Structures are given as C-alpha cells and as structure tokens.
Amino acid sequence: MGNDRYLTIALGKGRLAKQALATFEKIGITCQEMKDPNTRKLIFVNEEYKMRFFLAKGPDVPTYVEYGAADIGIVGEDTILEEARNIYEVLDLGFGKCRMCVCGPKESKEFLGHQELIRVATKYPRIAKDYFYNKKHQTVEIIKLNGSIELAPIVGLSEVIVDIVETGSTLRENGLEVLEEVCPLSARMVVNQVSMKMEYDRITKIISDLKGALAQED
Length: 218
Ligand code: PRP
Known about the structure:
The protein has 218 residues and is α/β, with parallel strands linked by helices. It has two domains: 7-96 and 186-217, D-Maltodextrin-Binding Protein, domain 2 (3-Layer(aba) Sandwich), CATH 3.40.190.10; 98-185, Periplasmic binding protein-like II (D-Maltodextrin-Binding Protein, domain 2). The chain is built from eight helices and eleven strands. The chain has helices spanning 15-26, 61-66, 77-83, 125-135, 151-155, 169-173, 193-198, 200-217, and strands at residues 7-12, 43-46, 51-56, 72-76, 88-92, 98-104, 119-122, 141-144, 160-165, 177-185, 187-191. The strands form two sheets. Strands 2-3-1-4-11-5 form a six-stranded mixed beta sheet. Strands 8-7-9-6-10 form a five-stranded mixed beta sheet. The chain is elongated. The mean pLDDT is 94. The protein binds 1-O-pyrophosphono-5-O-phosphono-alpha-D-ribofuranose. 1-O-pyrophosphono-5-O-phosphono-alpha-D-ribofuranose (PRP) binds next to strand 9 and helix 6.
C-alpha cells in the first residue's frame, strides 16, 4: 500500500543462485535480466515488485544482510554458521542439501578417537573449532584454507579436513572418505532484523508464499 521502498535480496553466487531464482519464479517474482550470462551488471531491478537482486560471494551475504544493505539473503547454512552474524534465519529452502563432514584417508579415522593433537584443514574454522572443541572435546590445530580443501591430507598439510560433501565424488576421486558427520546443510533464507519489523507484511508474504511453493514440491 504505497510502499515505494525497494526490497533488496542478496543471493550467494554459484550453485545456489540459480535454484534461488527458480524458487522466486515459482511465487511469481522473476528477474529476467539476471539470467543473461553475458551481463556485467551487479544489481538487477524488478520494477513491478519493487525488488532488487544482487549476487555476492556466499560469505558476504550475511554481512550485507546484517548491515541492512540487503533486506533478505539466500545462502547456505554452512555460511550462516561460519559467519555467525546478527540476522534472522527464517526458512529452510530445501535445496542445496549437503553435509558438513570430517574427511580424510581411512587411516586417519584412528586420530579421531584418541584425543590426538591433529591438524584440521578447512574453509570453516568456526564450525571446525566448535565441533572439535565443544562437541568432541579434542584439542586440534585448525588450518584455514580458501578452497580445494581435499588437497590438504593428500600433500600432508593436515590429517583430516572439515568440508562440505554433496555427491561425495571429490572425496572418491582423491582416495578420501567421510570419517564423521558434523551436521546436515541446506539453503536458507535470512532477513535483516530491522527489515523484519519495518517490512513485516511484505517479508512475511514472501516467506509464506515460498513455504506454499515448497510444500507443493513435497
Ligand atoms: C565444494 C566442497 C568440496 C566439493 C564437494 O567445493 O568444498 O570440495 O564441493 O562436492 P561433491 O561431494 O559433490 O564432490 P567447491 O566446488 O565449492 O570448491 P572449493 O573446493 O574451491 O571450495
């Protein structure tokens, strides 16, 4: 009712972005411009719905949402746990399902049961620390890496890794396996805490429409 403020939605780049857009399409919110593979534009506007979409690196999505630069974010639960921002997590979108796991060569399994001081390579130091220190009560050395984590145990940087496993093919092709499961993961919708109050009607309508669309898929 006369609300001309644009709602801004941050999407994590990569695997989740396409599915996030497809999910919004199901509830009638489209952003045709964003699908152009050749575009160098960073932000896309849907004038009809007074909405703006932008793509950001996954770990930056909770930051944009916490500061209110985006009202809503779509991002993996792994990133939400790792970034630990002051944001509301409002909906499990059901796609992007995978697991956070401790992985390594099968010989490394023995290091996980005896309180050994091992090295753990990961892109997720907070999640790894919480798992080893608070759940397993095992003191470990966490080594932060930025990608291709599976390399670490192969070249002797660490005994194990904490990483995402989706199909398991990266592990299999590199002679590694899941040794322990930390937690299941999926894509989530997050909301800025002030936006939730100021734009309550628009945001709760989006959440309930998405819930309805997700229920139809089941
Ligand atoms: C992720 C993750 C694993 C892989 C798991 O990496 O870090 O390496 O996907 O998927 P799979 O079980 O289906 O093989 P990503 O492709 O995001 O790149 P990165 O290793 O550079 O982070």
